[in-house]
Amino acid sequence: MQTPLTVMDFLDRAELVYGDRVGLIDEPVQPAASWGEVTYRRMAELARAQAAGLDRLGVGPGERVAVVSHNSARLMTSLYGVSGHGRVLVPVNFRLRAEEVAYIVEQSGASVLLVDPELDEALAGVPVKHRFVLGAESDELLYDFANEPVRYRISESQTATINYTSGTTARPKGVQLTHRNLWLNAVLMALHFGAGDRDVYLHTLPMFHANGWGMPFGLTGLGARHVVLRKVDGTEILRRVEQHGVTFLCGAPAVAAMVLEAAADWDGPIPGRDRVRMVIAGAPPPTSLVQRFEDELGWEFMQIYGLTETSPVVTVNRSRAEWDELPSGERAEKLVQAGAPALGSQLKVDEQGEVLVRSNVVLEGYWQQPEETSAALKDGWFHTGDGGALTDGYLAISDRKKDVIISGGENVSSIEVEDCLYRHPAVSEVAVIGVPDTRWGETVKALVVLKEGHSTDEAELIAHCKQRLAGYKSPTSVEFRDELPRTTTGKLQKFRLRAPYWEGKVRKVN
Asked: Other C-beta atoms within 10 Å of 50: how many?
């Protein structure tokens, strides 16, 4: 017997087994009316009412519904009210400008747009057939509790969500993820990181990003409790961990750094010591951050490597029994690797050093972009665009291929240089890029944000690197910045940092 794997399986089970349990706690302070505490039975009722409302609007199966929202109970429920009932949800980055959102709405062909109240004015000009501002008014207009929704027959190969890439290069592409992709990713995340019905999960990760890495699905099916956090703040994360007994969260290294910074000023014992585990992804973390995370917070550091195109889990790295007796510094060195393949994933590195993936979580394709799809899925492998190496089954990411610096014929990993600079006590953030050089072709440049109250200079940072790295890897120049541009998920937007130095050049490498 074979039955289709669909995202609705997770909420159906939660309603059946944990119906009376509070499964979702909405952000209490937000522009929309908060839903407060929501049981799994109520959440399932809301999802059905949303689906019935879409029926009433004439939005048929397979049609796209876009939503631009900060983390909220309404956004999470839409994963089931839209995707779980045969339509396609298009979660959009809430930091995009109106013209970028308009492009996504048009390119996806969305007939419905749901907008966070905070973004109502900024996105007022985005053309779409049906538009709702999330809140009490839209609850009245969109949710139909009087009628049962049509329960369309869903194939596991159908597209469930279209998630647009972060736009670090050119126009964003719409990543088609199927019900099968999302189902298996959710189960893999729960399996590898030991999720269960006693977990309390804090949504520090934007739900729009690869559907919250699958946590809204897997943890729902297991009956865990979700706590919505609208905006990330280190002190607020610690407060919620203490208030709700949080055991589990996800985010980029930048989020972990925020928590460490807040912990330095926290009054009393750090909440969640020996209880909280956190999955990190989005950028390779510096070794020093991993060690401080476990030593100072007492939280378990875990890591995945993945992309929107892989739902996202490709590799997992969690401390194993053989590492238990290692000093924290040595364990941190092992944990900064991207990790070993997740169950069911196959990896290889081709002759050009690019990481290739074969797995059931790899995208169906890019929405209405067959040429991009063919290039990404060439020869039966997904081409990640990341450079890396496999050692004893563990993947280490060396760089985005386009960010490898070739200086005097030698390859330099920007990540390695960044990791070195992070070890300097005055450095808060750093991005290393290649800039044109008449002698060496390219040379290494470091853009640095200093910690508050700390000072250093260019010569000291270059000397710091030269003491720890080969000469050709060390920066030849350092610029100090107030901040570095990042995506919502914490990725450095190096194309923006590189652009001024390569202006007027036909090629972006020398």
From this structure: 26
Q: Is 344 helix (H, G, I), strand (E, B) or coil?
A: coil
Answer positive or negative: Cα dihedral of 130, 203, 387, 342: negative
Q: Name the nearest CA neighbour of 54 among 46, 65, 43, 45.
A: 65
CA dist., res. 497 & res. 495, Å (int): 5
CB count, 10 Å around CB of 275? 15
CA atoms within 13 A on the CB side of 461: 31
**pLDDT tens-digit profile of 472-508?**
889 999 999 999 988 766 777 887 888 899 887 654 5
DSSP H helical ranges for 211-356 = 215-221, 234-244, 253-263, 287-292, 328-335
Q: Which two tokens stand for residue 225?
A: 């409790």
Name residues whose C-beta falls within 8 Å of residue 353's C-beta, 6 or more positions apart in sequence. Answer: 387, 388, 389, 398, 401
Neighbouring residues of 168: CB distance < 8 A, sequence distance ≥ 6? 487, 491, 493, 494, 495
Give start and end residues of each alpha helix (H) in 293-447. Answer: 328-335, 370-376, 414-422
Separation of first and last alpha carbons in the chain: 58
- Integer Cα distance of 21 and 4 in angstroms: 27
Q: Which two tokens stand for residue 501?
A: 């130095």
408, 441 in Cβ contact below 8 A? yes
- The residue-averaged pLDDT of 26-30 equals 97
- CA separation for the pair 127, 314 (Å, rounded): 36
Give the C-alpha separation, 157 to 180, whole Å: 6
Q: Decide which of 492 and 125 is more confident.
A: 125
pLDDT above 70 (res 510): no
Distance between CA 46 and CA 71 in Å, rounded?
17
In this model, does residue 199 exceed pLDDT 80?
A: yes
DSSP state of 6: -
pLDDT tens-digit map of 439-464? 777 899 999 999 999 999 999 999 99
Q: What share of the chain is helix, strand, coil (3-state, %, to 5)?
A: 35, 25, 40
Cα distance between residue 20 and residue 44, in whole Å: 11
Give CA–CA dist 470/134, Å, rounded: 54
Reported pTM: 0.86
CB within 8 Å of 206: residues ≥ 6 apart: 70, 71, 93, 94, 212, 488, 489
User: What domains can you pick out in the chain, each with its CATH number?
Assistant: 408-502 (3.30.300.30)
- Element spanning 78, H or E: helix 73-81
In the block, which residue shows the tokens 């050709």?
Answer: 472
Give the Å distances, CA to CA, from 75 to 33, 207, 212, 216, 399.
Answer: 13, 8, 11, 10, 33
Pull the structure tokens for residue 354: 């690019």
